[in-house]
Amino acid sequence: MNVGPSGAVTVRAVLQDPRWRDRLDAVAGEAQFDRKLASVQVLDSLTADRGIEPGAAVVLITPVGTTDWRIDVLVRRAASAGAAALVLPADASGTSGFRQLAERLGQPVLAWAGPPFDLAVDLQVALTSPETETVRMILAAHRSLAGEVGTIDDVLATASDLVGEPVEFTPEAADIAMPMDGRTIIEQPVGRGRHGGDARVWTVVRDPTPDRAAAVRDALTVVAGTLERVLAQRSVEVERNARVRSSLLADVLESGEIPTPELRRRAREADWPLVGSHTGIRLQLLRPGDVLRMTPAVGSALDAEGLAPVLVEQDEGWSGWLTSSREPSVGRSREVAAALRAAQRRLAPHIELAVGVGRPQTGIRGIAASMAEAADAARLAATHPERGRFFQIDQLGLAQLLLAWVRTESFQPAARTMLEPLEAGRGELVRTLGAYLDSGCSLLETAAVLGVHRNTVATRVERIQQQLAVDLADADQRLALHLACRALHVS
Amino acid sequence: MQLIRFADADVVELGCALLSSGGGGSPRGMVGWLRRLLGERGAQVTLVEPGELAEDVVALPIGFIGSDISLEEMPPGGPELPSAYEAISRACGRAPQALMAIEAGGLNCPAAIIAAALLDLPLVDADLVGRASPSIDLFAPAVGGVDVSPIALAGLGGRSILIEGHDVPSAEASARAYVGAVGGWAALAVAPMSTAVIAEHTVVGSMTRVLELGRRALSLHSGMTEEEVAAHLGGVALISGRVSELSSAPDGTTTAWIPSRDGRIATLVMRSEYLVVLVDGEVVSTTPEIVAVLDAASFRTVPCDQLRPGLAVALVALPAPAFWLRPENRRAMAPSAFGLAAPLTCALARRTG
Known about the structure:
The complex is a heterodimer of chains A (491) and B (353).
Chain A: H1 11-16, E1 24-28, E2 39-43, E3 56-60, H2 70-81, E4 85-89, H3 97-105, E5 109-112, H4 116-128, H5 131-145, H6 152-163, E6 167-170, E7 183-189, E8 200-206, H7 210-240, H8 242-254, H9 261-270, E9 277-285, H10 291-304, E10 310-313, E11 317-324, H11 330-347, E12 353-357, E13 361-362, H12 363-382, E14 390-392, H13 395-406, H14 412-419, H15 428-438, H16 443-450, H17 454-468, H18 475-488
Parallel strand pairs in A: 2-3, 3-4, 4-5, 12-14
Antiparallel strand pairs in A: 1-5, 6-8, 7-8, 9-11, 9-12, 9-13, 10-11
Helix pairs in contact in A: 2-3, 5-6, 5-7, 6-7, 8-9, 10-11, 12-13, 14-18, 15-16, 15-17, 15-18, 16-17
Chain B: E1 2-4, H1 9-19, H2 28-40, E2 45-48, E3 58-66, H3 68-73, H4 80-92, E4 98-101, H5 108-119, E5 123-124, E6 126-127, H6 140-143, E7 151-154, E8 160-163, H7 168-181, E9 185-189, E10 193-194, H8 195-201, E11 203-204, H9 206-218, H10 226-232, E12 236-242, E13 245-248, E14 254-259, E15 265-270, E16 274-279, E17 282-286, E18 290-295, E19 312-318, H11 322-325, H12 330-333, H13 347-351
Parallel strand pairs in B: 2-5, 3-4
Antiparallel strand pairs in B: 1-2, 3-9, 3-10, 6-11, 7-8, 7-9, 12-19, 13-14, 14-15, 15-16, 16-17, 18-19
Helix pairs in contact in B: 1-2, 1-9, 2-5
């Protein structure tokens, strides 16, 4: 970074400053452009007797012919005195004669194309009252960003004009490119929302003086505040509009691995995080109801437990996700589960929900995957009141999910057909088969569970095999019968 | 007393060129005429010291005014110098018994010798500037308040006019007007001077200096370094290099930048003569000190109007005529008199303390 030591304005910084750089040109002595300005001196003639001070920016305010040999003398005087820079009116930059001398003596010479006195005054102000620039920029920022500001792009455009460099916004941590040589990144965090402080507004400034860097930082603070306002407004609009949410959710779920810039922008405006570790959530109404009307209550209950997931009305319930920057620890997962259960209990008398929670997964594809798991989990949860109609997928849960699948309506008819031959009697054959298979084919244990004699069990098993024409010694047949029993098991 | 003969023509040419500080007009044509006069007729001119003159003798400063290009394109026929002499003689009621050069530098040096040869009169070892000068008001007597009128001018063919009773600036203006009207040059003679005036208000010893410098210049050879050349000529080397840029300004000055091999950069400022030399932006030599710009290969003098980018040159400072360093005369030939805001600086005085 080419910022001079604190409090120092270098010749290079002056050349790069957006206030002057369009009208200021380097003429000679570039190797010495890191010299620091200590004062500003105005010369109203080439032969002015006034002594030149070390570190002065000497500004010649009278027009001068390009071939004037007295420029050579002035260059020498400036070099001997250790002036930081000699500034000549732009029309003096033509001839190469004195330029050679300036290079030889290592004397920075600049050409100024603006009104002669202006640069001297501005430099003087910059040197003696550097905070003036800061104040000016902040006031300008407040003025232009205080009222109605439109979209994020409008805010960034206004900010760019203010700062004199392009100002960018990124909602996620990974986006800012590494700084290049001689350039400084100045950034401010934007809002909290669901992003947890990773969103930032930033700009790249070339060789700023410390005061300019401070001024830009302060201006960006104002910009950040405005962006938070815009985002909050937008977020409210999106929340109010269920259709917008639905269509955005559909696009998110259908997205490829890398979301389009358009999708990222819409998600940013809706305050939906796409980057990070996502935990899918499904809230399923037990009885049909007016989902849209219930949404605020559901939101409040979650908020009361410290949860702010993305939630979209879908089918008879709500689907969404919670994002954290890193995969949650086991402890954190348990906390989230507990909070969801608490929210579920809060809503219980009026809104009865089955809640499913998916496994944490990363990226936009992870959102879809985790939400699908949450949906399956919610279906499973709906059939288990003894578990509080709450199910969180973990490793073990996968097995139960599989089993839950066999209890779906598509499987049950097949199971019924398979066991139909055992229908006779009061269903004691079906019960016996189920208990026999659950015990792992132990006659003794089955007898104990059913409360009958071991021989009774043996007889019944023999009869089951005959009536179903199966061989219970065969593992596959055993498995199929076991699943069928489970499918018909009344919860 | 010495004699100036045909053999001295080369010496005169080299010497007056060195003293000219880049101005004074190219002496080549005039020296050619001098050679013909001295050679064909076997003539010789007597050079006398002012102290050798009898008390009642008056010497007439005589030469040419105008551009050397016009003199070369339309050379004098012969009667012009004598005509100017006669015009003054008539105006003053007496014929001056001796002649004097107006400028020791440039073509007016051989011109005075020519006049002496044509009029068969002795030449006084003195001139009015000690170098070359652009105008009458910078002549030594004018600076000293001595009346330089009447002034006689004779154009091609010899018709003459007399300018009387003018102050110096208007005399100069009238002279220039006449010169313009008659083709760009004219023979010029100003008021004759008594021995007393000569002693006080001229640069004594100029002709001897020309001859001495010329002899020294003849003995220069190509193996010498710039420092040796300068010392041989009685001066000091300022800088050597190749002219990189030449630029003319609206105020009539021309500036040349000459970077040297050792990295220093010289700035040379001139009007009709070399007036100010800066090295690395610092003034090292100014008028009345004489700046000789020598071709680096031949050591021939390069006048102002022949300086061009790419030329390899050596700058040598030769001692200023002591006349112009006297306190009462300093300002007359200082850079400020030529509109240049530089302090009068002598490289030689600095070197010798």
